[in-house]
Amino acid sequence: MREQRAARESRRTREFEAFVAGAGGRLLHAATLLTGEPTGETEAAQALLTAALARTYARWDRLRGEDPYDRARQELAALFAHRARRYRRPRGGVLDRLTPRERLVLVLRLYEGVAEEQTAATLGLPVERVRAICTRAVTLMRAAPHPPGAPGTPPPPVTGRPAGAAR
Fold first, then answer.
1. Which of 45, 41, 54 is closest to 27 using CA atoms?
2. C-alpha angle 65/69/72, rounded to 5°?
3. N or C end: fewer C-beta atoms under 10 angstroms in the chain?
């Protein structure tokens, strides 16, 4: 009996490790976008993802046909929504100018490709509200000034006289 249980646990652990090896990078990137951290500084994102993966592992045997990536993404979104007040202050990330809710909707809808209806169900919001939040977030991101030197950014205006010009 103990041998069967040990074998089951071993198989469960191997399956979960294989899942994390395959999906961990994408989930970490989603967590980094959610927390608003700049690339390379992912301490908060790693903590958020670790908690989401722990919850996913705890339910691993009960997934039965459910996509483990969807479950992990739902756990990540739920944990982020629950802890959103921790991520309000600017951290220097790409989505920094958005509120935590706007970041969550934008990441789920545009980065993860989750349908509006599923996003609304995950967040407990009406579909129209999710649509409005996503539209506002995209508008804010489009209206934001590009960092100097970014592709598509016009060169800075020339001020003063060129070097060597007569006075």
1. 45
2. 110
3. C
| Separation between Cα atoms, residue 63 and residue 55, nearest integer Å | 12
- Nearest of 59, 56, 142, 70 to residue 108 by alpha carbon: 70
* Tens digit of each residue's pLDDT (9 = 90 or more) over 92-126: 888 888 999 999 999 999 999 999 999 999 999 99
| Spatial CA neighbour of 129 closest among 102, 100, 96 | 102
Q: In this predicted structure, what is the pLDDT of residue 39? A: 75
pLDDT digits 0-9 by tens, 46-69:
999 999 999 999 999 888 788 999
Angle at 44 between CA 90 and CA 109, to 5 degrees: 75
- Chain centroid to CA 154: 30
Q: Go through the domains of the chain in sequence order and give each one's CATH number.
A: 2-143 (1.20.140.160)
Average pLDDT, the chain: 86
For residue 151, pLDDT over 90 is answered with no
Q: In the chain, which ranges are continuous DSSP H helix?
A: 2-35, 43-58, 68-82, 100-106, 116-123, 127-143
